[in-house]
Sequence to fold (656 residues):
Amino acid sequence: MPKKSVILLILLLLTISPNALKANSSGNVKLEIEDRLEYSCNWNAHGNYWEGYQHFTNFDLYGISDSGSHNFTIAFNAPEELRIVTPSEDTTNRTVDGGSVVTRFFTGTGTSLILGFKTAKPYLDPLNFSLIPSDTDLYSIDEEGRLFFSILVNATEPIDEFEIRSDSIRRINSVNSNLDAKVVWGGVVQVRNTPVGRHRLDLDVQLEAYQNSFSVDLIISKNEATYPIKCLLDGKEVSPDYLGTSITYESKRIEYLVGIVPWVYGYENPRTYLLSFNSTNRSFVLQVDTNSREKIDFLDVSSDLRGIEVKETTPYDNPCYELTFQLATDAESNICLTVYDKVWFLRPTAVSLGNVPESILKEYTNPANSYDGEYIDKDNSLVKAWCEQVAGNETNPLDAAGALFQNLTKTLSNKYDITDTGKPWKSSDILLRASRNESAGVCAHFSRAFAALSMAHNIPTRCVTGTVLGNNATSHEWNEIYLYGYGWVPVDVTWGLFGILPNTRLFCTTINENYSVMALENSNISIRNKTKDFILQIISVCNSQYDNFNNLIHTVPILFSPCQPYFDEYIERIGTSPTMLESGYYHEAVIEISKAYLSLKKGEELLSQILIVTIAVAGVTIFIVYRKRRSIKELLATSLRKTRVLEQEVCAFEDA
Fold:
């Protein structure tokens, strides 16, 4: 037996009490150990480079039949110093003869432990990697959001498989390499059988959004730990059912010096929230953001799914899917959302009022087209004078809006008063009260004041509403101005934000139930597994609808061939969803299922039209045939009458 293993066993025996050896822990005990090494590689186009390193080991023990008191002991000999043990309560940590022994005392059928080590770097990287621009000194994005870059890897040992993935990439157009590399789907590349040595992968990708930077992850999984580990439960050795090492290389802050794209905003600073609610009437409605600023991290519904309906919506010109879930029972539901700051990269030289479409200019400089237009008196003398004094003759709409925003933010500072909620003040009233150093209302009043000043300067402006997430969910109102080349850009006088939608703001995601809110640090793994099960139910319900129509199609295929492209698209989209689920892309899976559902519905609608036309044509044909048969009968009857008349005339002639 190796020397290290002998030392570990001795350490274990020294630390376990006689009572522990008698503990009854029989049952289907499961132990999973995951050793996690995380390398973060940070660099930018200026040539600066630095990297970080983290090392954690997760222990999950479960399935103990006896729910009484137990102890779980881990003896190990790692080359790094143990920094942290979580949880620390009811846990002991000892160092004996150069090794470490951690014991967790617990009551129940299982427990979990995380060991964290000091950020040294004693392990040889199996796969050093770096990113470089392709055939240029700078990372650059073309006008379609297309980016070319290369990944250099230096394998110090054979690697069976690793993945390249990035949330920043919408689609990988191609990957070229001497390695066995292929695009699995979306933004994921799978590389197999990498030999020792240096290798290069050239990628052509489409970015999700222009963010000034993007990140790429390389992930390796190995079926072993990086150091020797022995585990005992109540004095008996426990062999792990799963033992593996996950090595993640994460790039951060790869900055671009060139970037001109049709979208000029980016997502950053994610924040995660748990939204909990009780669905009533055996259903609930969830509106989902297709642009993925507000991403579903998990979806837990305590009821089986009976049906689903999907339709497209565009709140404030933002494409969304509205999903109506029919449930078997009323249910307690949890939705975890990751929300990003949405930041616009605004350049005054790129903005011109003269290029704004006439329809937008006409509609959004007229208060009558706003839902609260009766309070936006842009032609009031005080409003016009205020606008003239602040913005003057400024012709650039971005500079003019910025000046009005800065002035109003300063003027209304400390004028917010929640007791003014619902007061029917017009924009001029708010400006007048502010000038007198009186309370000037709440967010709705502030947004009306900015709308009036901005419209008075002929800048297309609208008031919008959304939800602020904090200790609870509260409604909020702010403005958007239309800038050519940028679209609708947020302006929030209440919060002092220009060109940014913060990660505390829900703009697209809605639920037709009252919900509570809690900020989360990490999502729960067990709930994520429930999410997978629920989304698989959605797929199953959709497939049942498809099967019904597919059976009908095959009865008379010649009539239904025009519908086939829609059903083919359904099969393609619904087929990619399970792969997304396995990779943890739940939001993307919901979006793909929604697209598949809509394709199926388009096929069904066309099928209904074909059936209606077919029935109508058949009815007309039957009617025509009937009319023709009736006409023939009438013709024969007439001929017969004429024949009889002629016979009578002949007989009369012969008698004469």
Notes: The chain has eleven helices and 36 strands. The first strand starts at residue 30 and ends at 43. The radius of gyration is 35 Å. The CA atoms of residues 36 and 496 lie 41 Å apart.
